[in-house]
Amino acid sequence: MLLCRASAYQQCWQLNKYLSCKGLARTPSRRLSTDLLEELQTRGFIQDVTRPQELQSALRSKQQAVYAGVDPTAKSLHIGHLFPLMCLLHFQVRGHRIIPLIGGATGLIGDPSGRLVERQLADRKEVEANVVSLSASLDKFFQHALLYAKSRVKEDLNDVQPPSITSNLIWHKSISMLDFLRTVGVHARINTMLNRESVRARLSSQQGLSFTEFTYQLLQAYDFYHLNRSHGCTIQIGGSDQWGNILAGLELISRSNPDQDAGNKPPEAFGITTPLLTTASGDKFGKSAGNAIWLDPILTSVFDFYQYFIRVADADVERYLNLFTLAPEDVIQEIMAEHNKQPEKRIAQRKLAAEVTELVHQTSGVERAEALSQLLFAADYSDLRAARLVSALEGDPRLVMLSPEEMFEFPIPKLAAKHGLVSSNSAARNLVVSRGLYLNNHPVQDATSKLDVHDLVDNRIAVIRAGKEKLLVLALNVQ
């Protein structure tokens, strides 16, 4: 349910009530006429929206431009970014322009929203390096996402515009303080700024709020203003903690319009916020034992990425299918109906993991993750095909190509230590004693045991496993 917050300009209605109304004019474009807001609401993307009736009409009448911000606090995207990026993808596949905006300038300041203490100022060189890396990550994500979308949506995506990835440092670095005060400060009202929820929370805290953080909302407001004027951007999407910053941008766009009487009115602007995404247990989505799950396969392997979604709780899986896949609602309901008959088979989780892994890492990533999953969790390896497995694991550190001499000359525990499965030879021998070192799912009986040609699966590979989840695939290097 959408929250309603009173203001002459900021008034918002409950979207569900509005969507039940009739009579909106339809347009010749079938793609644009799709009830995008209704779908986003149904899938769980929307918490607040400004002037939904006008926004719905604008979305149905012509192409809009929408932006969402990405903080440059790391060099890679993580799965917490999937929420706003999927929201942008829904706009993109329906023919709207999307602008993923990296906060190269605002990242140097730090957003006080949702924080009880002030952030330490980020290192400029680190932020600039993160901007470059994130730009490449965003480009890669949307390339993969459109390939994923083509087989799942009925719209023709051949003419979809690529994302306009940019950094707000581009315009902030060229504006002087005097120009900023004359352009932005003159329209800002201190009483309004003080009433922002993020400001009030920090003013009542022991540490208080610095002037730098206090003016953050003006920097973000200027982003929306600049994109509105220079790029025709009409919609900003942000998390629920960004509501005040979004409203600041809407107010600046509304007030700084000196040419309105001359008929040079800028595009109308709207704001959408998404709810805070947590798991059923109350944890922040995207954290696994305190560590982020990255979209970069170097930081989080494709297998570990896939397994994160395999381990999703039953209470969360239907919601995640709506948010992180493009599966239609009726398909999701069919998946859940089948899942609920035998929840121990984790049918919904397997579908979720395959869909999101394909979205981010393409079909080859799904094949790789499923191949490794079979190695870890299958009791019988007789159906494994070496060529498929080696192809799926290409580039994965768990695949080790060996000459026949090395494969058969060294004891199995020594192979495990040499290729990083365990920390040392002694650790490997201790695992053998405790029956925790496995060859092809069978405990290694003796620390002096060596591989034999009869141990090879499909005449080429041997799987050494330590405990439940650590493994090595040793493959004969066939020339």
Describe the protein's architecture and organization.
- By secondary structure, the protein is an alpha/beta fold.
- Helix content is 44%, strand content 11%.
- The protein contains 20 helices and 13 strands.
- The chain has a six-stranded mixed beta sheet with strand order 1-6-5-2-3-4, with helices on both faces.
- Helix 12 links the parallel strand 5 and strand 6.
- Helix 5 packs across helix 16 and helix 13 crosses helix 16.
- The longest helix is centred in the last third of the chain and has 31 residues.
- The chain is elongated.
- It comes from Pluteus cervinus.
- This is Tyrosyl-tRNA synthetase.
Key terms for this structure?
single chain; 479 residues; alpha/beta; six-stranded mixed beta sheet; five-stranded mixed beta sheet; 20 helices; disordered N terminus
Helix content: 40-55%
**Over all CA atoms, what is the radius of gyration?**
27 Å
Largest sheet: 6 strands, mixed
- What's the number of extended β-strand segments? 13
Strand ordering within the main sheet:
1-6-5-2-3-4
Task: Work out the strand percent.
Answer: 5-15%
Integer average pLDDT: 86
Q: Report the end-to-end length measured between terminal Cα atoms.
A: 62 Å
- Secondary-structure-based class equals alpha/beta
Topology:
Layout: H1 15-19, H2 36-43, E1 48-49, H3 52-61, E2 65-70, H4 82-93, E3 97-102, H5 124-150, E4 166-167, H6 169-172, H7 177-183, H8 190-194, H9 197-203, H10 211-214, H11 216-231, E5 235-239, H12 243-255, E6 270-274, E7 287-288, E8 291-292, H13 302-310, H14 314-324, H15 329-341, H16 347-377, H17 386-392, E9 399-402, H18 404-409, H19 412-418, H20 425-433, E10 437-439, E11 442-443, E12 461-466, E13 470-476
